[in-house]
Amino acid sequence: MPVEAPALELRGITKRFGPVVANDRVDFDLRRGEVHALLGENGAGKSTLMSILYGLYHPDEGEIRVDGDPVRVGSPARAIELGIGMVHQHFMLVPVMTVTENIVLGEEPRGRVGTLDVREGARRVRELSERYGLAVDPDALIEDVTVGAQQRAEILRALYRDARILVLDEPTAVLTAEETGELFEVLRNLRADGVAIVFISHKLGEALEIADRITVLRRGKRIDTVPAAASSEQSLARLMVGREVLLQVEKSEARPSEPVLDVRDLRVRDDRGLEAVRGVSFSVRGGEIVALAGVDGNGQNELVEAITGLRRPGSGEIRVAGREVAGAGVRATSDAGVAHIAEDRQLRGLVLPFTLAENLALRDYRSPPLSRRGLLNTGRMTSRARSLLREYDVRGGDPGTLAASLSGGNQQKVCIAREIASNPRLLVAHQPTRGLDVGAIEFVHRRLVAERDAGRGILLVSLEFEEVRSLADRILVIYEGEIVGEFPPDASEEELGVAMTGGGVSQTAA
Amino acid sequence: MTAHALAAGRALPAPRPVGWAGVALGAIAWYIALPPLLLRTPVPSLLVAAAAVAAGAYAIRADERRLGWGAVAAGVLGGLGAVVATESGESNLEDVFVWSALIAAMLRFATPLIFGALGGIVCERSGVINIGLEGMMLMGAFFGIFGADLTGSWVSGVLIGMAAGGALALVHALFSIQFRADQVVSGFAMNLLALGITGYVFIAHYGSRGTPDGIPRVPDVTLPGIEAIPFVGDAVGRASLLTWIALLLVPALALFLFRTPRGLRLRSVGEKPRAADSVGVPVIRTRYLAVIASGLLAALGGVYLSIAFLGSFSQNLTAGRGYIALAAVIFGAWRPGRALLAALLFGFSSALAQRLPTFSESTAVLFEALPYVLTLIVVAGLIGRTRPPAAIGVPYVKE
Amino acid sequence: MSQAPDRPEPPPYPGGEPGATPAARLAAYIRGGGLLVPLLTAVLAFFIAGLVMLFTGNDPFATYEAIFEGTGLQWLFPWVTGDDRTLAAVNLQQTLILTTPLILTGLAVALAFRAGLFNIGGQGQYIVGSIAAVWVGSSFAGMPAFLHILVAIAAACIAGAAWAGFAGFLKATVGAHEVISTIMLNYIALWVGVWLFSLGGPLQNDRDESLPVSNDVVEDARLPVFWGDPVLQGLHIGIFVALAAVVVFWLLLNRSTAGYEVRAVGFNPEAARYGGMSVARNYVLVMAVCGLFAGLAGALDVLGWQFRLATNDVQVSQIGFLGIAVALLGRSTASGTVAAALLFGALLSGTSQRNLDPTIFEPELASNLTLIIQGLVVLLVSADVLVLSALRRGRSLMMGRRRAEEPAK
Fold first, then answer.
1. pTM
2. Which of A51, A77, A108 has its CB closest to that of B264?
């Protein structure tokens, strides 16, 4: 009996970006009616591979076959023609347009005289939405609906174009646990309908839950393809990383002293005027690491901005070592002893066209010894930079090098060096290891623990479970702008996960 | 608890209509001191103006800041205008404020602005900033009349003028899209180039004599039957063909942008080009076409100036009208209908400035600055935080 | 082990890179091109303008030669002697007289660019400066010379600073785009200036009612000439003031905390805010200083060689606009601005009525040619990719290359 050709086959795909080989002779195949997970670490090559499939990149070598026929996917338009639909991690939706307009864009139903038939579009959207269980309001603006609804719109966009191969890129990164469950239901419906699904993720647990087969990529190469039923988190982790992973950083018991940060009843509004932080109270003591855990978008950004002086709170108190700083602005807050490792080092933490010496002076260029009466002392700036670069083992340049030419890890080291050098009482670390490789992450973790032992209070805001559990002495969970629970670092993933998605009984935080 | 909520809770009037009422009251305050009502005491006007300011304050407290400040400004300006009017001589006022002539002049002055604004909207909605509208307009102005002179037909003149504007726009498109230039700087370069090129060819061909008389001009179109009606006929019964075309293009463009698939795609390219690209909308090609279209439209505005309005050309004929058109685009929040209102407002101020010197010699010069002052107020005061197309000014990079 | 997702995020930043303001993009030049890039840009612009000349039947070589002869730059060549040398000296004085205000209006745009602002208002700021200078210079007849000059210059600087500062204030408070507001202020300044000196205007001169011109600047308030014959309009000391301003500009930008803030804001306003700087305050201060430079240019011209302002002068002047091309060609650096100012000063001088031989090239045409060259310079500078790409093959520009090839993985 002839075996049905796989819906999709990628053979020997190779893609280079300059000296870096993002995909190295990767094979991947996908059957109809299956969910195939694509797992891998940061930089493993998963997204590149799928971008090639969707026509966003051209492979240097290799071939693609759809239903057994070799094809060239030159552009997203071609990919759509072939029945390939992509649900991007950062949604490809226009915020100011409606759900329907976004879904039909490019294949709009036409009314008389060539105008856009919005009603027909909405009708088709409702039809698809009912068929697969993807609830959306066709007339709502994208910017007004929840993240989960946006993702459903994104999926509908692919289905509207009769996609039979669906690629989802890190779909659960922005979802709550409940929404993830809903998504998985939808995926099961689609699978039952014969749609072939690629599920890109770095989350082992989810891959095991939803996938039929799992392919692991590491450093651009395909390591193995295994059935989900025959795998475990352990086995997958080993394939992904190739070695036993050190999940815990070594640290001794914390010895906290007095509070360096006291937040009382803080309320902060976001850019759209909605309350993002709703009456938060907690404190951080010197010599301890308090981690703020939660799904992205629950008020962490606004809370950090309020504490560091970048955003005016609506009401409430923020005391740093006894001094009230709420609404006082960045300078006063900084002078009070707050340092801030920014979430986005390229947007906020660094001025890329500045030299390393200039960047390292960003906090205290105004005061001696770096300047006197308005005049900069560039010699001092350089010598101080040199010693900092050495102390933090920053590779890739000297004080005169532009920040833009450093790698991500080294850039982050520069940021950290600067913040710690200002000798703060409170160090706010906002996603300090985002986008870093394993070596850099270990460095950052070790450094944070060292600073904790030196007596500083550290507020760690992170989206990563492991990082939180590894570093924290206390864990606070934030959900929809409120602290819903405080947990010890050995709390289980379930406990934390439940709190992060709003369920369970909370213990009030200190 | 904001006044907004208070208002909603206690059935106080909603702030938006109140704000608009304030703007209207400000205009009324001024109007009642002018012909035909011609109140000679400023007191009623000041009362109305005060009401306008109060309405504005109410709107501001209810978080309708832009509209509220607009109402306050209207009240203040209306009150001032009324005071000035009551101080002026009656016969002077009656000389100046011949409303039918004012309206007709308003349309004439507004026409190039309308074309420019429509061009600006198309271009910017696709995500490309166009500071070069002034230059494209100037190209149309010169090459329009040049073409009409050479070919002896105003139709060819119009087409040649449009082509010249389109050609300049193509350069702007090339640099902004292909070479990812800074669009503001590149747009400004267009204006310099246009000034130089039109001046160069103008002098080289016509020397110091200037354009000859008798070059075929765009005809006026009379609306049959309407011209006979006393007030309306003088105001709108007769206007240049290009003026009518401009007015018709406004709803046409609005229809295109908001009701057709191509319009949807254009807007998506300006809001989030990646989203458009991911469904196969050709971002680059759309932007090129939009920029060139804006060149064609802006050039039409210039063509109107030289072939329809003046019948001649002099260096730097456009004198900043392209920038005022851009202000109309921003004022109109990138929507054709509202941009039309802005263009009419600016046109009105120019019409007024033209008539005012009939009784004041030295201040005649000062009133030349009126349109620019108005633009400044508009850009500074009322604009603030309107939302341009989200991806505007960002060159699109395909990996 | 588990990591933040690794996709390259679609950049939400203007320009496609975090904080890629115009200043940041220009930074690629400053570091990567040295003197070569501006030189290449100028050569390219002149080349294309030459093509335009060919197209209309003129001889570009003869024209450029004729222009060059009018600049007086041959005076710098030791082999030029005798009558040629004297003539060249006079021409060079004229060139330098024109260069003086160009340096300053160039700085007025350059400083703004460094802060991420596009100051097109140099012309208006220049005009208000010259108005203030001519008014103070023609009044207060009894004042001692040194003081009189100082007060006139101060008045011009304040006027220019206020004119530009207003635009900065609008940007800082309501976010009004400085391009449109400064352009409008240019036109307003123009018409106010014309009005002031027109027949019956408040600043019209007291001697002759039929002339729309201001009062003359009194003898004492005129800048002394140090090279050449004052009667034939030799070079006045204003050039030293302009050069001093360049030094101030450099020191301010590179050695002061204020300059550090300006550069930070220009490169990345978000990071500047994060570092505790007030972006709004910097915008206002920078624009004010820019206006000060442009107003100073107006003062130097009025006190140095114009001595009076007619309505025609106000309408015809282009010095402020040229400053834009000067700053862009000079990549907003101190030395670049001086070099570019000299280039354009020479171009203006060489194409002026008195210097250019009409049989080779019409002077009226030449002023438009200058406009075309300006436009080409500005256009070429706007697209750093073009001019830089040739250099990039030779050198490895770390910033540009890394950005373009950041692997998506």
1. 0.82
2. A108
